[in-house]
Amino acid sequence: xxxxxxxxxxxxxxxxxxxxxxxxxxxxxxxxxxxxxxxxxxxxxxxxxxxxxxxxxxxxxxxxxxxxxxxxxxxxxxxxxxxxxxxxxxxxxxxxxxxxxxxxxxxxxxxxxxxxxxxxxxxxxxxxxxxxxxxxxxxxxxxxxxxxxxxxxxxxxxxxxxxxxxxxxxxxxxxxxxxxxxxxxxxxxxxxxxxxxxxxxxxxxxxxxxxxxxxxxxxxxxxxxxxxxxxxxxxxxxxxxxxxxxxx
Length: 248
Known about the structure:
Layout: H1 2-13, E1 17-19, E2 22-24, H2 26-41, E3 49-51, H3 53-60, E4 72-75, H4 78-90, E5 94-97, H5 105-111, E6 114-119, E7 122-127, H6 140-145, E8 148-149, E9 155-156, H7 159-172, H8 178-188, H9 193-202, H10 207-218, H11 233-246
Helix pairs in contact: 7-8, 7-9, 7-10
């Protein structure tokens, strides 16, 4: 495992592309762009919680850019969600909603859980929920009670939450992104499973089912089935409604 990880990190570090005839490190460029923007534009915002890839780069790897990022994820309260959305729109970022604008506003606001903003190399996703409603609900108020101070005047989740979020996010996304898997493998060496069980109980996540998902990931059964919720009719009903609304 350690040898595989060293090979992976070496591969990431040497991942280059040619731009205008010059050697150009795309991963470094993306990191520099996001760091510069956060330091210059977001330092006066309060209660922005950073998680997933941007956190992983600093906390799990020798150098942040060893961990490729395509976007930076923010988790915020409903109030700050609106403020951050207006902030990005004022700066003329391109954006998209989780749902079509044809959907009645009261329906969209109740189901929408993220909004993405992009400009040049910059890509941000602003979440007021960690997962879409059809997958799993984790109480946002409970999440915000657990945050801790981090770099760049930002907040973050403790490592137990980072691990749980990484596992569920990887599983929800059909286990398709390789570097998400490395985050999980590194976190596996750092977390205390007694705490993981306590945190699962705190968020009303079934710990036994969570472990089944983790075991499936560890043994490489990369399939598109969802053991976590297959018996929960309500989640699937919401899922089909979600898909229907998104196509309007």
